Structures are given as C-alpha cells and as structure tokens.
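Appendix C reproduces, verbatim, an entry submitted by the partner laboratory led by Prof. M.T., so that reviewers can inspect both the input and the predicted structure.
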Amino acid sequence: MPREQEVISIAGRYIHGTAPEEQERLTWMNELLNAQEFGAIALRGDERALELGAGTGIFACALARRLLLGSVLALELDERQLACARVESNDVANLELRQGDVYAPPLRPEAWGSFDFVHARFLLEHLTEPERALSVMARAVRPGERVVLVDDDHDTLRLWPAAPAFERLWRAYCGEYERRGMDPWIGRRLPGLAHAAGLEPIEARLLDFGACRGMQRFPTVVRNLIGVVASAGLDLVASNATTELELTQGLDELRAWSTRRDATLWYAVPWLAAQRPC
C-alpha cells in the first residue's frame, strides 16, 4: 500500500481497534468508571435515554438496568462493536441498539427533542468535528433535561515514580490524536463545547481513574493503561510516531514499574452535565 493511502486508512479508523483484547479492556474500564458515573448522574429511573457511541454496549446495558421505568436507545457506528453489544444486551428488554453515525443519527422526526437524558463517554476525543456531535445532542434532549459528557484529558496522567520510556510513548500516543485531527485534551473543553451548542453547563467533576499499588483495583488500572497504548501500537508505528522497539520498551517499563511498592498512577477523567434551556 502506498504510504499516503496507508496514512489515510489509519486516520479513518478507531485508534484502539476492535480486537478481542480491546473488548476485554473496555470491560475493565467500565468496571472502574460505571459506579462513579451513576453516582454522579443520579437517575430518577423513568428517563428515556439516548447513548451515543455505545461501543460494546456495557454502559448502555448498565444504564437500562437502572431505568426500570424508562428505556435506552444506544447508537454505534461500528458493526463489530455493535455485534458485541447485541450479545451483551441479550436479556435487557428496555434497550434498543441501532447502527448509526453520531453526526446523523437514525432518529425519527418525532424523536428529536424527546430524550430526558443524553450520554456520550470517550466519544468526542475520537471525532474530528466534536462541535457537530454536540449540536446533535443538544437537538436530541428535551428542554430542561441533561446531556452528560465524559471524555479524556490525557494530560492528567502522572506516574510515580517516573517511567520515562512509557511517558515518551504516552506523548507519542497523544500526538497520534492530533495527527488525525482529534483532540487528546478535549476533556478540559467540555464546558465550552456544550455552551457553544446552546447547552448550559450545570455540574462539572473529575472521575478518579487512578490507583496506588496497595489498592485492590491497581492491577486493573495498570492493565487498562497498557491496553490503551498497546491497542493503538500498530497505528503508532505505521505513522512513525514511535518504533516497534520503543513501543515494546515503553510497555515493558510500565509492567516493571507496576511491581514497585510505591507505584502510583494518577489520572482524572472530566465529567460534565449540561442542560438544554427551557
């Protein structure tokens, strides 16, 4: 494949791919974040919810199970992710899955402006036009109801003690987002994006995604971080952001780092609730 065509094909793909290892990582990630998210959202239980970029459907299923008097419509563009979501949601009666583009979701005319709750997690960082996606969410939610956004600011990652080889790899990973026209720091911009879409930010907080070695969840946090970078490894090498040797050395260093008794990973995920004005 000519180099230019190769770069274009890579830029059009989800950076983490859809390999079984990535699906497993998404399960770990949901285990770490879902309880914090549901505590922040404070659902009534009767909402009609829209989930955009549903991925493998783990959060959408958990959301539907909490909406005993409500329902969830979950949209996902990638058919392979959607196939996993269908398996995950097999016993969830109040969840509907549809294949659809976040920029042009397959909603009936009467569905626009009818949802009590709209949610997107780790979606905007993978879009080249996040403003467009926010305008869709603002149109979909009912006046007076909420859009909840959760997205990364990769600059919040801090390791103690330092792991220089992995930290160089992390910077290369962040640079790959920018090379694709995406924003690895988009979490800090959520209030501005919401406001520009006509939504009023009403609550902001940080979800804790870190741990020290003495915590039960530490191995899961480290496995997730390794998986985040490893799943993007082929693309990082193909775009010359790093080399195979640097990729291997960085991940090996992180694995060795995680055995230290004082190893601590600090990471915070921006969370924002914004309301559509009445």
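The domain at 3-275 is CATH 3.40.50.150 (Rossmann fold). Additional entries are available on request from the coordinating office.
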